[in-house]
Amino acid sequence: MIEFRIFFAIALTFAFFGVEVVGGVISGSLSLLSDAGHMLRDAPALIISLGAIGIAKRVPTKTKTFGYHRIEIFAALLNGILLLGIGAWVLAEAYRRIYNPLSIESTTMLIVAAIGMVVNSYIAFKLHGSSDINVKSAYLHVITDTLSSAAVIVASIWIFFTNQTIVDAVLAAGIAVFMLYSAFKIVKDSVHILLEFVPKNVNLDEVIKDVLSVKGVRGIHNVHLWALCSNVHVFDAHVFTSHRDMLRIEKIKKEIKERLKKYNIKHATLEFECEECTENEIVKNIEH
Fold first, then answer.
1. Closest Cα partner for 109 from 36, 20, 175?
2. Are 168 and 97 contacting, i.e. CB atoms less than 8 angstroms apart?
3. Is 135 exposed, middle or buried (0-12, 13-18, 19+ CB in 10 A)?
4. What's the rounded mean pLDDT across residues 250-272?
């Protein structure tokens, strides 16, 4: 059962996040602490995946007609902001340690990082093979953390044999930069959805072209396309047709909604009209 696998992965992620924080403090390894921040980035990705599956099963209510889809976006936004703060702190601390290296307990660093790689590998194994887009995203997050843990292991071995602790600060800086990049992308994508812009992976011109190609459709205007959450898109438009027969119009509507499915549009509101707006109004609306 995919829900149980994701829930178990979340529990493991949070548990080992704590282990890495404690291990980082005890060993003095900044790269271990930054890797813990990396794991913290994975937890919301897994929670969003679990939430998306749960939300999909919930029936909308009279006061929440779209359900709770936006919760995952707010969670992602808060997580992104938190990670920006953590990444900035790690980067500043790495800069300080490059010029003032501290002693590091490489053995503790190695043990904790090795356990981290095992945990991440196990979680990746549990998530691998799912067809759900959210689970696939979480899987990729975990894979990058596995590689990060491997890098910390290499650094700990290097420190053990050479006592060159500067490698820990350099590695931490690299992880922090990647963390900041990921966090910025999370915040940017979350704001993009909250402001109800056209989904990034959907070309509005292609959608309009697809609708216009349906037999019986002569024009389309008042077009709006936005994302409700990461995997649900919403579309509404006025459709101009010369047909006045309701059965024929219903067939056209069914065909349009069928074509919209490939754009992940799960909610579509279509208003059919027998009189079309002027061409300038149509163009203005689409450009806007």
1. 20
2. yes
3. buried
4. 92
Amino acid code (one letter) for 183: A
- Domain limits, the chain: 2-194, 204-287
Name the pairing type of β-strands 217-229 and 232-241. Answer: antiparallel
Smallest Cα–Cα separation from 51: which of 70, 72, 65? 72
Tokens of 180: 């900041």
Architecture in CATH for domain 204-287? 2-Layer Sandwich (3.30)
Per residue in 28-78, pLDDT (tens digit) is 888 888 888 777 767 766 776 676 666 656 666 777 777 777 777 877 787
Residue 252 has pLDDT above 60, yes or no: yes
Q: Would you identify the CATH topology of the domain 2-194?
A: Alpha-lytic protease prodomain-like (1.20.1510)
| Amino acid, res. 16 | F
Q: Where are the alpha helices (DSSP H) in 195-270?
A: 204-212, 246-260
Query: For residue 32, how many C-alpha atoms fall within 13 Å in the half-sphere facing its CB?
Result: 31
Task: Judge whether 83 and 141 are in contact, CB under 8 Å.
Answer: no
CA atoms 109, 114, 117, 122: torsion sign: negative
Collapsing DSSP states into helix, strand and coil, what is residue 188?
helix
Handedness of CA 204, 209, 214, 216 (dihedral sign): positive
pLDDT at position 255 is 94
Question: Per-residue pLDDT tens for 221-242?
Answer: 899 999 988 778 999 999 998 8
Widest CA span of the chain, in angstroms?
A: 83
